[in-house]
Specification:
It is built from six helices and ten strands. With 257 residues, it is an alpha+beta fold. It folds into two domains: 143 residues, no CATH class; 100 residues, OB fold (Dihydrolipoamide Acetyltransferase, E2P). Strands 5-4-3-7-6 form a five-stranded antiparallel beta sheet.
Length: 257
């Protein structure tokens, strides 16, 4: 839960796991698993709201930007509001589950402190998982940026063509075409053939080179127009592979194309 996942199954699975664990814990304590389940379901919206508000608003907006005073202040406000809402849920649970009788409810159900501890353990567990994923993602991005910088230090692409090393300036490359075990590097002036696999060549290319198809890599600086399943580089139309369409759209959006 460190960053918003594009896959909602991650969040759904996490909260199903949470409900099951708390139901088991409180069910054993109360001796009534059904009552515990209904009680947790009533408490769950507050837990969800607090968790996502804390993790996706307070942490990135204040904590990660080192506004610690505001972070603490708004966290306290969040705690107060959450406890207030939690008390309402507890009161309703007495009405709905206990028929206005405290005797019909287990002692743990009226323990606001215990409920708050359980609730915020979940919130902070989500925050910990969120932080862990953010750190991992940042490390990946730093590694990728470093790799791109290393690639950019070399301003030319070196390929073996006709038993000679040919150096092709990156800015002159329009697109690269795969032909089985051969590749053809198309520039504005000529096409250079080299015996190399396009997948291996792709690892050596910096931004803004973009693989759009199993058979094509294009220089984004030469892209004229982009459609759903094809684009035009200079005067050449190239198909965008179905499995590459989402990636192409995201990369071009990031490049401002």
């Amino acid at each position: 839960m460190l960053k918003k996942s594009s896959n909602p199954l991650y969040h759904i699975s996490y909260w199903i796991f949470v409900v099951l664990i708390i139901t088991i814990v409180f069910g054993r304590s109360w001796g009534n698993g059904t009552a515990a389940f209904f009680f947790i379901c009533m408490l769950l919206p507050i837990t969800l709201g607090t968790s996502y508000f804390f993790n996706y608003l307070l942490v990135p907006r204040f904590y990660l930007k080192k506004h610690y005073r505001r972070f603490v202040l708004y966290s306290v406000y969040t705690l107060i509001v959450s406890l207030y809402l939690q008390s309402i849920v507890i009161l309703f649970s007495f009405i709905y589950l206990g028929n206005f009788s405290f005797r019909n409810m287990a002692p743990n159900a009226s323990d606001t402190v215990l409920l708050a501890v359980v609730m915020y353990l979940l919130v902070f567990l989500g925050a910990f998982l969120l932080m862990a994923r953010q750190i991992k993602e940042k490390e990946r991005l730093i590694h990728q940026l470093k790799a791109d910088q290393d690639k950019m230090k070399v301003s030319v692409l070196e390929v073996l063509s006709n038993r000679k090393i040919v150096k092709i300036p990156f800015e002159e490359i329009v697109y690269i075409e795969s032909m089985a075990d051969y590749i053809k590097v198309h520039t504005a002036k000529e096409a250079i053939v080299s015996k190399e696999k396009i997948s291996k060549l792709n690892e050596r290319l910096p931004k803004p080179f973009l693989r759009i198809h199993r058979s094509f890599i294009v220089n984004a600086n030469h892209i004229k127009t982009v459609a759903y399943n094809e684009l035009v580089v200079d005067e050449v139309r190239l198909n965008i592979g179905r499995s590459f369409q989402k990636q192409v759209k995201e990369v071009l959006k990031g490049l401002g194309s």
